[in-house]
Amino acid sequence: MPEEIKNDLEKMEESLEQSAEKLSDNLEVLSENIERSNSKKQSFLKGIYMGVGTAIGASIIAAAIIAILSGVLNSFDDIGFVRSFTDWLEVKGIIK
Is 82:76 a contact under the CB 8 Å cutoff? Predict the structure, then answer.
């Protein structure tokens, strides 16, 4: 019986060593990833991407709002105060 216990302990020790090696490798990879993500170059590029993305998104949203508003203004063209308001703003040439 003591021989079986010794074999079991050896297997457990091998398994523990393998787990410790895997953990060490994973920690090294994690450390490299953290260093890379905290670099100034990476932060700069991230800022550029976010700035360009924000500008493009804002342009798309503004274009959609303008298109919707021009449709609304065109549909209310028969109402007098809307016509006078659009004439006052001088947007008739832009809308049509």
Answer: yes
Q: Is 1 helix (H, G, I), strand (E, B) or coil?
A: coil
**Do 47 and 90 have their domain in common?**
yes
Structural domain range at position 84 = 40-96
Taking CA atoms, 92 is separated from 11, 23, 61, 73, in Å, by 84, 69, 22, 9
Count of the separate structural domains present in the chain: 2
Taking only the tens place, the pLDDT of each residue in 5-56 is 888 888 888 889 999 999 999 999 999 988 888 888 888 999 999 999 999 9
Angle at the Cα of 51 from the Cα atoms of 46 and 57, rounded to 5 degrees: 125
Does residue 31 share a domain with residue 44?
A: no
Q: What is the pTM of this model?
A: 0.49
